[in-house]
Amino acid sequence: MREPILVINAGSSSIKFSVFETAADRSLSPGAHGQVAAIGASARIEVADAQGRKLIDQPASAQDHKAAIAAIHDWLATHIGSEAELGGIGHRVVHGGTAYAEPVLIDAEAIAALEALVPLAPLHQPHALAAIRAIAGVAPEVPQIACFDTAFHRNQPALAQLFALPRELTAKGIRRYGFHGLSYEYIVSALPGIAPEIAGGKLVVAHLGNGASLCAIEDGRSIATTMGFTPVDGLVMGTRTGALDPGVILYLMQHEGMAAAEVERLINERSGLLGVSGLSSDMRTLLASAEPAAREAVDLRRSAGSTHWSLPAASASMPPRSVPRCAATQAGSASRSTKRRMRVGGPASRRTARRPPYGSCQPTRI
């Protein structure tokens, strides 16, 4: 039985997907991949085969995530097979909180737990949940698995996960979680084949895309990372502020009269490269621009890597050395994050990576 695996990465305006074919020995090979883009606007479904040859590129009736999933389902049913043949469906889910340190079979309890984490990842979590619910509506018998961006960091040293807050607040889950874990996990798995001489050592890895972070890794484990309680912290990003004095938030609310919802939109959607440049959140556009504000945004992004790190007890001990540099473009980063091998079946479910989930990974020297 074929039992292909479908992998989903749901964003605010697109749902990207990949299909992996399952061989008789349960090994997986990449198949078709694509996306439904511009959901709610001029939606299109685009699909290519494993060699990148375009299979379909046409308008899609997708006013919401439910309709986008239906469009993907219809294409799969026609070209891959019915949902009864799927071995499982994997989802990239940004936030797993303290409850999830590994992939989990999605059920009503898991959905409720992920729903409770929406305030911690408002740009990501709702869209993953919308896709999960939409798939349950069209393929209720197929197991769905959530794989978390926070999971890679859950075994960090205790100090790396703490804020200097009263313990009763820490006990309520206000702590550093870290994100982009699926990207870092892939790099750890691939590095022995790329640069074995450094794979087991102390590394600093950069995940650079619309969202950006750094991670200190030792012996394949996350030691510390720049993102914290939410994906807003750390480096300057496409539309997110990165590290920000919390006093700025208080000032905006107390003296500029901004409500919490306005501040949330400011730090998530109107800041970062877009806010500083007033032009774009895309580094390619800014690098091509002659505008002084565009250059300033680029320089600020670059300087953030050395001035805004939050890597307790890790970075100070790391000598300059060859480390993997994961340089992702904003246009392609999310789609590649879905192309992961997964083995689905009962409590021993596993997933391993086949290719860079967010961009090219090669040794460089810092």
In short:
The protein is an alpha+beta fold and 366 residues long. It is built from twelve helices and 15 strands. β1 and β2 (15-22) form a beta hairpin.
Overall 3D shape: globular
* Percent of sequence in beta strands: 15-25%
Terminal Cα span: 48 Å
Number of strands: 15
**Spatial order of strands in the largest sheet:** 5-4-3-2-1-6-8-7
Q: Please write the string of helix (H) and strand (E) elements.
A: EEEEEHEEHHEHHHEEEHHHHHEHEEE
Biggest sheet architecture: 8 strands, mixed
Helix content: 25-40%
Put simply, the count of helices is 12
Structure classification: alpha+beta
Describe the structure.
By secondary structure, the protein is of the alpha+beta class. Helix content is 31%, strand content 24%. The chain has helices at 65-79, 108-116, 125-138, 167-171, 181-194, 196-199, 246-255, 260-269, 272-277, 283-288, 292-307, 333-337, and strands at residues 5-10, 15-22, 28-37, 44-48, 54-59, 88-93, 104-105, 144-148, 202-208, 212-218, 221-225, 322-327, 340-343, 350-353, 360-365. It has an 8-stranded mixed sheet. A hairpin with a 4-residue loop joins strand 1 (5-10) and strand 2 (15-22). The longest helix has 16 residues, at 292-307. It is globular. The N and C termini lie far apart (48 Å). The model is unreliable at 310-366 (pLDDT under 50).
Protein topology:
Blueprint: E1 5-10, E2 15-22, E3 28-37, E4 44-48, E5 54-59, H1 65-79, E6 88-93, E7 104-105, H2 108-116, H3 125-138, E8 144-148, H4 167-171, H5 181-194, H6 196-199, E9 202-208, E10 212-218, E11 221-225, H7 246-255, H8 260-269, H9 272-277, H10 283-288, H11 292-307, E12 322-327, H12 333-337, E13 340-343, E14 350-353, E15 360-365
Parallel strand pairs: 1-6, 6-8, 9-12
Antiparallel strand pairs: 1-2, 2-3, 3-4, 4-5, 7-8, 9-10, 10-11, 12-15, 13-14
